[in-house]
């Protein structure tokens, strides 16, 4: 069983990463930030999305190639562009790729793009599942991420119904119910309506530069780093770890 990634979700995250790079005045050179205009960010995301659309149900290796080439294409180097993706094949008159490389800006940009490239096999079907993901995220909140014993008294079905109400009617219905029947209204309101998560500056820096570190490690050592998920201890199921990658 393999998870199918949502194309819109991946492209949206890619755009967020690019905007973070543009706003990063500490670790990103000024020349890179000047090259990474808002229009160029739109070009980068649009070209990546076009590559996914053009290779739908096709060859995964070709999709990876087209995704990798979306960066040079967006910066004016069309020497490796394909006719089904670009109208300026072979044109290098407005090539800014060399400036991007000299400023070191290609590392964070390709690092952000690599988050899509490594999911090529999961994006090849060009599927979106926004509604399903939203509903399942609501259901996970109601069943506490499958940490409850939901076998007895139709526990899972009841929480599924509650999730459907939350999905269709918005959050107001359960807030009123909790306020009417329970005295812990303030706590429930905080949990259900929270929009922020605990994240320190170090955690934010790590999330933003993780892909860059992996790319530089691969360039320096010549080793391939594969994606890693959550590893659960066999003997102690309450222990888990999620490494940045597997070598």
From TrEMBL:
Q: Where is the Mutator-like transposase domain?
A: 1-86
Q: Its domain of life?
A: Eukaryota
The YqaJ viral recombinase domain covers which part of the protein?
189-247
**Family matches, as Pfam families:** Mutator, YqaJ
- One GO process term, biological-process aspect: DNA repair
Which InterPro entries does this UniProt record tie to the protein? Answer: Mutator_transp_dom, NF-kappa-B_Signaling_Reg, PDDEXK-like_dom_sf, Restrct_endonuc-II-like, YqaJ_viral_recombinase
Q: Which Gene3D superfamilies match?
A: 3.90.320.10
Protein name, entry field: Uncharacterized protein
